[in-house]
Amino acid sequence: MSARMKETLPQGLQGREPFYWWYVALEVLIFVELAAALAEVVWPWFSGQAPDAGFLRPGICLVAFATIVLSWKYVKNSNRAAARALQAEIDAAVTP
After folding, report:
1. Angle between helices 20-47 and 56-94 (to 10 degrees)
2. pTM of structure
3. What is the 3-state secondary structure of 37-72?
4. pLDDT tens digits, residue range 33-57?
C-alpha cells in the first residue's frame, strides 16, 4: 500500500534525473498560464476599460495568484518529505 502511495505522489525531479528540463519547462508553463489568466482579469481594471467594475474579482484573483506562487515551494517540499517518509516505511516493512 505504501509503495503505491509513494508512486502516485508527485515528488518532482532532481537536476541529474532524465526529463528534468521538461519538468522545469512545464513548471514555468504552469505559471505563465496562471499569469495570463490573472492578466485577463486585471487588465480591464488597470486600463480603465471597466470603470464601473469593482475591485472584488481582480482582488480575489491577485490574492489567489500570490498564494499559489508563495506556497509552491512548500508544497513541493512537503511532497518530497512525504515520499521520504513513505520510503522509510517501505524499508522498515521489508527489513525485519
Report:
1. 160
2. 0.71
3. HHHHHHHHHHHCCCCCCCCHHHHHHHHHHHHHHHHH
4. 999 999 998 888 778 776 666 778 8
Amino acid at 79: N
Q: And the C-alpha cell for 14?
A: 532532481
CB within 8 Å of 35: residues ≥ 6 apart: 65
Cα angle vertex 24, ends 23, 29, to 5°? 95
Longest dimension (CA), the chain: 69
Cα distances (angstroms) measured from residue 91 to each of 72, 87, 96: 29, 6, 9
pLDDT of the residue at 42: 87
Phi/psi of residue 16, nearest 5 degrees? -95, -10
**Backbone phi, psi, residue 53, to 5°:** -75, 140
